[in-house]
């Protein structure tokens, strides 16, 4: 046992010396490899954590949202529909929702404005997301001037600023009273943006949706499960940017594997020939190459994954956020709760470490089984 | 110390950090969600991932094929639109 360990240590010693002899080549290979693993692991951590957050947040989404479509676009829903929908068996509540978008000409930001339910709150009071507060440099008690549909200012007092930890829900949110919402957007009387429907038995949702569509042919019921599915398929591998990252990673691995599988350099063949002529067994040479593959690929895998974890969960994924920010003025800080999916990490391991190590050994086995004299003369 | 032992020591340390990641994640999961819980009564339908376009701010509530409905030649041009996919409905009806 001790002898076997000593043999492995000696071969590892030789491997490290051999790798350090071609320092520039091997360090650049390690850096490239590490970068590929880092990108793939970052993407995986980011998407998995985002899906988990979405599942938690959207658990409180309405059972069903009923929109009205006119010429293929979302239109206002008459609040009178609420009473008729409430009469459908199984429906426990229908709540008209008022929400819309407000373009702030001062900084070019888009806010999501919602009318709050709480009628006891002061009419002039508003709750805003931390993104809005940051963009307009606001604190609790400040006045936020908004411009109404008739260009008249609507002044709201900041009552609450949502903490930055809730950015994934509320970064761009402004919650005002229904009266202020009306002053801001002048919606026609008896109209709402959409209707939030609560159904007693979730199994009846599809039936209730079918009944609503039959009752109001221009309506579009959106089920909670569909809302949740939107975020489970968000950043799907078929998405543009995700596909680009996966394709570039795949291409890099093909280049690695091609470089390794097409054979060894003349210098490496000569080295194998010399090793065999001084008494190394074929198994020793294969072990040498195995360790070479492990040193590079395992180091790249472990370091790449750890760096990806730090990038996504400690630094809030600055590389991906740039793409998501786009031209937004307000953007959330992605303070995601860490999630480690062992299955996906195992897939990443088998996709990165195993092919590289195998691709290192196979051409070497071919060289190691030839005559040392022929290998040295190659 | 031998170079091989130095390498093994380094790998063992990195491996230990790697194995600590799931424990850290579990610990963070247990102590998180307080701030989000306060906002549960808002009953939001979408996450605030990008605010540049309606259909990436509220993808679940957006019109079908929203990027192409602005005007006849309105091809997708918002960067976030290349990351956030439109909703795919599985129901035939309604």
Short note summarizing the structure:
Chain A folds into 2 domains: 2-58 and 234-377, no CATH class; 99-186, Beta Barrel (Barwin-like endoglucanases).
Top keywords for this entry?
heterodimer, A: 378 residues, alpha+beta, Barwin-like endoglucanases, 5-stranded antiparallel sheet, 14 helices, 18% strand, B: 94 residues, mainly alpha, 2 domains, 3 helices
Any overview of this molecule?
The complex is a heterodimer of chains A (378) and B (94). Chain A is an alpha+beta fold. Chain A has 2 domains: 2-58 and 234-377, no CATH class; 99-186, Barwin-like endoglucanases (Beta Barrel). Helix content of chain A is 55%, strand content 18%. Chain A has 14 helices and 13 strands. Chain A has helices at 2-21, 23-57, 80-86, 130-136, 167-170, 178-185, 205-215, 224-232, 240-261, 266-277, 282-314, 318-325, 342-368, 372-377; strands spanning 64-70, 73-75, 77-78, 91-97, 99-104, 109-115, 125-128, 143-147, 153-161, 173-176, 191-192, 194-199, 219-223. In chain A, the strands form 3 sheets. Chain A has a 6-stranded mixed β-sheet. In chain A, strand 5 and strand 6 form a beta hairpin. Chain A is elongated, with a radius of gyration of 31 Å. Chain A starts with a helix and ends with a helix. The model of chain A has no long low-confidence stretch (mean pLDDT 85). Chain B is mainly alpha-helical and 94 residues long. Chain B folds into 2 domains: 3-37; 44-89, no CATH class. Chain B has 3 helices and no strands. Chain B has helices at residues 3-30, 34-37, 54-57. The radius of gyration of chain B is 23 Å and the shape is elongated.
Strand line-up in the sheet with most strands of chain A: 5-6-10-7-9-8
Largest β-sheet summary of chain B:
none
DSSP strand content of chain B: under 5%
Label the structural class of chain A: alpha+beta
- Weakly predicted, low-confidence segments of chain B: none
Main sheet overview of chain A = 6 strands, mixed
Largest interface: A-B, 92 and 61 residues
Rounded average pLDDT of chain A = 85
The helix count of chain A comes to 14
Shape of chain A: elongated
Radius of gyration of chain A: 31 Å
Oligomer: heterodimer
Number of strands of chain B: 0
Provide a count of the helices of chain B.
Answer: 3
Number of domains of chain A: 2
The separation of the N and C termini of chain A measures 37 Å
């Amino acid at each position: 046992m001790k002898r076997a360990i000593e043999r492995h240590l000696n071969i590892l010693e030789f491997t490290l010396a051999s790798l350090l002899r071609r320092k520039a080549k091997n360090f650049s290979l390690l850096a490239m490899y590490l970068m590929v693993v880092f990108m793939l692991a970052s993407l995986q951590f980011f998407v998995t954590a985002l899906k988990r957050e979405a599942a938690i947040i959207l658990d409180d989404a309405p059972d069903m949202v009923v929109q009205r479509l006119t010429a293929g676009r979302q239109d206002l829903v008459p609040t009178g529909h609420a009473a008729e929908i409430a009469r459908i068996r199984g429906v426990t509540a229908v709540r008209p929702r008022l929400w819309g978008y407000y373009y702030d000409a001062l900084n070019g930001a888009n806010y999501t404005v919602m009318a709050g339910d709480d009628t006891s709150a002061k009419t002039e009071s508003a709750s805003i997301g931390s993104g809005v507060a940051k963009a307009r440099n606001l604190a609790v008690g400040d006045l936020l001037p908004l411009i109404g549909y008739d260009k008249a200012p609507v002044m709201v007092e900041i009552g609450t600023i949502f903490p930055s930890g809730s950015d994934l829900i509320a970064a761009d949110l402004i919650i005002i009273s229904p009266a202020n919402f009306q002053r801001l957007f002048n919606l026609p009387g008896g109209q709402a943006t959409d209707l939030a429907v609560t159904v007693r038995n979730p199994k009846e949702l599809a039936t209730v949706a079918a009944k609503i569509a039959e009752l109001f042919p221009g309506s579009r019921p959106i089920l909670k499960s569909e809302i949740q599915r939107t975020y489970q398929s968000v950043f799907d591998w078929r998405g543009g940017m995700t596909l680009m990252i996966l394709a570039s990673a795949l291409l890099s691995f093909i280049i690695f594997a091609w470089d390794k599988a097409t054979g060894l350099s003349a210098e490496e063949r000569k080295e194998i020939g010399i090793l065999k002529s001084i008494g190394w067994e074929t198994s020793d040479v294969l072990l040498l190459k195995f360790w070479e593959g492990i040193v590079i690929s395992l180091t790249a895998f472990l370091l790449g994954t750890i760096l990806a974890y730090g990038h996504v969960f400690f630094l809030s994924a600055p590389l991906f956020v740039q793409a998501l920010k786009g031209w937004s003025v307000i953007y959330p800080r992605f303070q995601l709760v860490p999630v480690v999916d062992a299955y996906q990490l195992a897939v990443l391991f088998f996709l990165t470490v195993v092919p590289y190590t195998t691709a290192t050994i196979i051409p070497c086995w071919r060289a190691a089984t030839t005559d040392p004299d022929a290998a040295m003369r190659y | 110390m031998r170079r091989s032992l130095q390498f093994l020591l380094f790998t063992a340390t990195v491996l230990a950090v790697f194995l600590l990641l799931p424990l850290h994640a579990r610990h963070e999961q247990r102590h998180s969600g307080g701030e989000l819980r306060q906002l549960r009564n808002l009953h939001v339908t979408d996450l605030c991932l990008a605010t540049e376009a309606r259909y990436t701010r509220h993808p679940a509530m957006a019109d079908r094929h929203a990027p192409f409905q602005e005007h006849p030649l309105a091809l997708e041009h918002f960067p976030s639109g290349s990351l956030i996919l439109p909703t795919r409905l599985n129901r035939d009806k309604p």
